[in-house]
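Try it yourself: sequence plus 1-deoxynojirimycin, in.
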Amino acid sequence: MNMNHLVLKLSLVFFIHFSTTAQQSIDIKVAELLSKMTLEEKIGQMNQYNGFWNFTGPSPEEGDAKVKYEHLRKGLVGSMLNVRGVRDVRSVQKIAVEESRLGIPLIFGFDLIHGYKTVFPIPLAEAASWDVKAIELSAKLAAKEAAAAGINWTFAPMVDITRDARWGRVMEGAGEDPYLGSLVAAARVRGFQGEKLNAPFTIAATAKHFAAYGFAEAGRDYNTVDIGLNTLHNMVLPPFKAAADAGIKTFMNSFNDLNGIPATADAYLQRDILKGDWGFEGFVVSDWGSIREMMDHGYARDRKHAGELAVLGGSDMDMESSIYINELETLLEEKKINLAHIDDAVSRILKVKYELGLFDDPYLYCNEEVEKQITGAQEIVEASLEVAKKSIVLLKNENNILPLRKKGQKIGLIGPLAADKNSPLGNWRIAAENNTAISVLEGMQNYKDNRLSHAQGVRLVEKVPAGFHEEVAINTTDKTGFEAAIALAKKVDVVVMVLGEYGFQSGEGRSRTQLGLPGLQQELLEKVTMANPNVVLVVMNGRPLILNWAAENVPAIVEAWHLGTQSGNAIAQVLYGDYNPSGKLPMSFPRSVGQLPLYYNHKSTGRPGAEGEDPGSVFWSHYGDEKNSALFPFGFGLSYTEFEYTNFQLSTATLDRSGSITAFVDVKNTGAVKGKEVVQLYLQDPYASTTRPVKELKGFQMVELAPGESKKVSFIITEADLKFYNAKQQWDAESGIFHVYIGGNSLVKNKRSFELN
Ligand code: NOJ
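Structure, out:
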């Protein structure tokens, strides 16, 4: 062992020793504090309230707010959500710390889904970057900005696997694949929580929604979920497990019932798997009112029963049902629950508070000066621009219509979202100001020599406020803008059309049955394309949309999601070729709503047809009126250059359980510009004790290549990559043949095989 190794080893031993003793001392402190707490105070820690009034103003005299205020003073509140900004956080914390008997600090929760004041791309977009480092940085800087505003706990990441674009919340996750989803989940946990949770800019994270919320029947939010153990363990749970393994501090359960049991009361999920098998030591918060909603589910008889079921099921903190605070004492007297349940929940909550450093300094996150410095800091804005560029996916580019020329080309910019500064902020931007995104128009105007004209074509109209923010919608009746848009199209060399969903058209409670371009946009697109076929379609959206007509008739399509504060700059840099697009789809784009749910890692069925598409017969698994395949598949995305894959080889044809196989491929940039390619490795287990997906992503690497340059890319495959939840209900790899695919998207056909002994 050389000196470096010795130093490394000693510091590792010291680190493990130090963190173990630090952990032990937290456990001791928790136990000591617990022994001083009354039952009422313990139950108070399990109670979370929403923010309710401006604490620097006069105290409310009556109603709900008065009750909450009283509860804060009596130490009957463990956490608040949606209180933000140093001034407000400090004043609420002050009540808990200075007025309650034991002065236990509050933990402040907030939905930091894609940024705080500086808005980052929606998570689905960031997943399209396949750049886990960039995603980690995005979470880290979002945490920094939020922590500077007093927040110390985020209800993110959402790690739900999503297969159905009708569900509005697909925008919040990393898409349909458990492998990509797991890497993204772990990256976000590292980003939010950092190395030291009690450092000033790190915050506790939450894996949500536990579990299977993304499998809501028919994509309708909050709907029933009925899936088997096979899908639960192989598809739904892996990203949650990855978050737990990355040391996440909290979990949030979900609104749905799962196979007949509301997730909020599901002891199999929360007690057996999470706190049992996975050894999770943090706490579980309910979703908003989900304890109360168990009555609507038809699972709890009344509020008290709901409290009993939630406690027994393993929910430690009650978000906004006010059931724990009102019912747990009686439940204890009636012996429906016991003190050990309460002590366990409270210990978990206190432990996270200790780990955050809140007992050392309850105002750790409360410094006005720091808040001013950090809010909107250059470093955060720059990172949001970088990841926004990386999130863009080029779906089509015929005749090299893109990139646009920076000089001498007449460009018509058309569409309701072209100058819109609000929609690119996406759905979860509670702390951001409205209309603060750079629009595509502004982004393109930065290119001074272009000859750019703009027409809206379809107006945005005011919508009745339905969420946290004023909303707009895309006009469905007024065509008065068509004429000017068509006239403009006729005069220019190229048309850039910015169409899609307005910012709040996806997100919570925003399920849809129609996934074409909303309102009059499809008609506008067709009319403009008739006037000038040189159309570049830029799509802004929070979910896969159906783009069949555009895919047939429009030469270029750029998938630009809702990219946040820097949206217009990112899009303009891609359109003008200053950034060569490298994103790949994290979700399949369907041809029709009737195909949903649609995902690449499906099972084969007993009648798969030839190559999955066989119009010659009837009795195979297909539709009479549509293909089975996606319009744009998972993993797909183009570049301004092209890549060639050759010399695909495996190092050996057999894999021993303790050994590994290396898969190699040469990837060459055969085009004229530098570019990045996400090289993807898929595996298939063609025969097993349960049926297995036709393909599963098991690795990827991003390579950057100059024109003509070639690189050997290699992946190491071990037994761990072959494991799945099998017929014996064990996570294991079964002996036999496996197929390996390497390529640029999930349709890759080129395969090699090996045998696991
Ligand atoms: C309900 C949502 O389902 C959840 O994701 C969110 O964290 C809470 N509301 C709090 O805002």
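One thing you can check immediately is this: Residues 81, 111, 155, 208, 287-288, 508 surround 1-deoxynojirimycin (CB under 6 Å).
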